[in-house]
Amino acid sequence: MSAPTVPTKATIQGSYRSTSTLRTYQTYQRQFVQYCKQLPGVDPQTATPSVSTGFFHRQSYFF
């Protein structure tokens, strides 16, 4: 049994029909890039799941 394929970024973005959803996605994307810039040696394009988890845990403090 093979692993399911992961959709491309363009496919995910294209699936957002609502402008507000797309705007929210783009906001998170910008914030994630800024978060990665604060971490030594972390590239947003190759960030691990643990980096993403750290980002979203950090975000939860602001909401």
How would you sum up this structure in a few lines?
The protein has 63 residues and is mostly helical. The chain contains 3 helices and no strands. This is Core-binding (CB) domain-containing protein.
How would you summarize the topology of this molecule?
Layout lengths: L8 H6 L4 H20 L10 H12 L3
Give a quick set of tags describing it.
60% helix; mainly alpha; 63 residues; 3 helices; single chain; globular; 0% strand
Describe the overall structure:
- By secondary structure, this protein is mainly alpha-helical.
- It has one domain (16-60).
- It is 60% helix and 0% strand.
- It has helices at residues 9-14, 19-38, 49-60.
- The radius of gyration is 14 Å and the shape is globular.
- The model has no long low-confidence stretch (mean pLDDT 81).
In N-to-C order, the SSE pattern is HHH
Approximate shape: globular
Rg for CA atoms:
14 Å
- Beta-strand segment tally: 0
How large a portion of the residues is in β-strands, by DSSP E? Answer: under 5%
Q: What is the makeup of the main sheet?
A: none
The structural class is mainly alpha
Question: Roughly what is the average pLDDT, rounded to an integer?
Answer: 81
The first-to-last residue Cα distance is 41 Å
Percent range of helical residues: 55-70%
Query: If helices are DSSP runs of H or I spanning 4 or more residues, what is the number of helices?
Result: 3
